[in-house]
UniProtKB/TrEMBL annotation:
Subunit structure: The basal body constitutes a major portion of the flagellar organelle and consists of four rings (L,P,S, and M) mounted on a central rod.
The protein's name: Flagellar P-ring protein
Record has Hydrolase as a keyword: no
Ribosomal protein recorded as keyword: no
Species assigned in the record: Sagittula marina
Family, as annotated: Belongs to the FlgI family.
Cross-referenced InterPro entries: Flag_FlgI (IPR001782)
Main location: other
Domain of life: Bacteria
Record keywords, A-Z: Bacterial flagellum, Cell projection, Cilium, Flagellum, Periplasm, Signal
Lineage: Bacteria, Pseudomonadati, Pseudomonadota, Alphaproteobacteria, Rhodobacterales
């Protein structure tokens, strides 16, 4: 047992110094109520694949949509048997931004829904995109840019990335606008992306100070209302222009985010640890089987016997002895000390979990 606190202080040559809060524009902190995008989805067909399309016996819906498309083009395929391997059924998704106008273009994502091996080099045939109300708002078509590659031979197959999904930049054209009369609004609501009472109060104060009158009112931690009549800017759009670039110092909850797969630890500057003692170590159990075959002597009667032989051992891995962390210690200091002692990232995550479970880690603990 040894006191790690002394080693932590000895290993730390540069302690974390407090960093001044950075000012952030209001437009990066809030969303304007009503100014939002809308999700679109459609079902279509990708053609021109190099033998990597759907197996139509396993994906009968591909044959059905291909038959419908050909019939609309005047080709009668009723009762015909066709089994091409260069087509694939896909779902097409996109996002219609706020204030999108007819004739504008948006990006779309194309994803295979059958057993196609790759969409590389394929072309999406004209696909209508519907919103949640069932109306068509855009039509997509174009060459798919796949995000991976695949190759196979008689006895092996290699895949890099995700070749069954791709994008079409500016691949959909807006055909219908979302009805929304922004100029008729008399009140604007600002919704904070990360609700916080202090940040909301600061936004309210900055807006009122800039406009010279009490036009902004904080309703709760995530909502601020703007009275356009008091703002005196003439229109909702001009009101947003006059306030969206104002700087505010946001306040956020202390948070620690860990990724167990990669061993990544991200923490805020406000994370604090109360007085706590930590002891960490590990046991490794090793079992090895080494059976021995015993045979009878030459020209003697008998049978070969296999005698089991097992080796078992328990090893205690070197860890951290009892360590006492004083109240108010910055978590970055503890992490730096653990790094200096050579503690593995995954062991460090386990230590942080235990400190949080003990109630000594004062922050939101997010595990990904």
């Amino acid at each position: 047992m040894f006191n790690v606190l002394g080693m932590l202080l000895a290993c730390l040559t540069l302690l974390a110094s407090p960093v001044a809060a950075q000012s952030v524009r209001i437009k990066d902190l809030v969303e304007v109520d009503g100014v939002r995008s809308n999700d679109l989805v459609g079902y279509g067909l990708v053609v021109g694949l190099n033998g990597t399309g759907d197996g139509l016996r396993n994906s009968p819906f591909t044959e059905e949509i291909m038959q419908n498309i050909l019939e609309r083009l005047g080709v009668n395929v009723t009762g015909e048997q066709f089994r091409p391997r260069n087509v694939a059924a896909v779902l097409v998704t996109g996002r219609l931004p706020a204030f999108a106008r007819t004739g504008g273009q948006i990006d779309v994502t194309v994803s295979a829904i059958g057993d196609a091996g790759s969409l590389l080099g394929g072309t999406l045939i004209m696909t209508p995109l519907n919103a949640a109300d069932g109306q068509i708002y855009a039509v997509a078509q174009g060459t798919v840019i796949a995000g991976g590659a695949a190759a196979e031979g008689d006895g092996a197959r290699v895949v890099q990335g995700v070749p069954t999904s791709g994008v079409i930049p500016s691949g959909a054209r807006v055909e219908r606008e979302v009805p929304f009369d922004f100029t008729s609004l008399t009140t604007l609501r600002l919704a904070l992306r990360e609700p916080d009472f202090t940040t909301a109060a600061r936004i309210e104060a900055v807006i009122n100070r800039s406009l010279g009158r009490r036009a902004a009112t904080m309703l709760d931690a995530g909502t601020i209302t703007l009275d356009l009549a008091r703002a005196g800017t003439g229109s909702p759009a001009r009101t947003i222009v006059s306030i969206e670039n104002l700087a505010v110092e946001p306040q956020r909850r202390a948070r620690v985010v860990v990724d167990q797969r990669s061993g990544t630890i991200v923490m805020g500057a406000d994370v604090r640890i109360s007085r706590v003692a930590v002891s960490q170590g590990g046991l490794t159990l090793r079992i090895e089987e080494a059976p021995i075959a015993i045979q009878p002597n030459p020209f003697a009667e008998g049978e070969t016997v296999v005698v089991p032989r097992t080796g078992a051992a328990i090893e205690e891995e070197p860890g951290i002895g009892l360590a006492e962390v004083p109240t108010g210690t910055n978590l970055s200091e503890v992490i730096a000390g653990l790094n200096a002692l050579g503690v593995a990232p995954r062991d460090m995550i386990d230590i942080l979990k235990s400190i949080k479970a003990a109630g000594a880690l004062h922050a939101d603990f997010v595990v990904m």
